[in-house]
Amino acid sequence: MAIKNVHGSTLEKLGQAVISGRYPPGATIPPEPVLCEELGVSRTVVREAVKSLVAKGLVSTGPKVGTRVLAAEQWNWFDPEVVVWQSQVGLTREFLRDLQELRRVVEPAAVRMAAERATPEDIADIEAAFAGMRKAVEEGGDYVTFDLAFHQGLLRAAHNRMVAQMSKALAALLRTSFEISTSRKDGPRSSLPMHRAVLDAVIARNPAKAEKAILVLIDGAREDIEEVLASRRRLPKLDLPAPRLRAMV
Description:
about 250 residues, Arc Repressor Mutant, subunit A, mainly alpha, two-stranded antiparallel sheet, 2 strands, DNA binding, TF_FadR/GntR_C, FadR family transcriptional regulator
């Protein structure tokens, strides 16, 4: 196994252990020799994995105190690996609530700016993403990837450098929402008109209408998530490829 894969596997195991609560906030994770024996890796691999956990805000280290797990509020939830680990150990209602609230804060403002600033190239990119979504619904295929491209296109079209950077950080979070919505029967098909309404408002240079349309879409996603949670259906694990839709019959 390559060194990079050994490091990645070790980091994933430790990250999952922290996020799952095996090592709860305030606890000290086992010392290097114990982790080396438990995980079957060298001290160098463990040390590098711990450094990565520190960078992600999951743990802190210090002399005479060891490596302590930090509170979840301090974890970097914009780090894609942290989001993936959460999906692997189990998405929680609190996590999904925070995600939906974040979307309600960020996306409406970004879409207002997109309606004012989108270039023809931006519109073409978002149109292409919408076309991919529609084709996936009608003919089967990867709907989630095009749904993500649609929303990231809107964020980029705001032409705000910080929002553009946030679109990259939000990718794993948004995919979580989209995969859950997609798992609901007829969810993708019923959401197409809502996506079209957002795009049409941006094309029409109507910020107020665009904001209203994206809120309808976000709230629809929240309802999808609530229904899936209530059904106790298996939730997505983001380390796996996005599910493909079946063709309409």
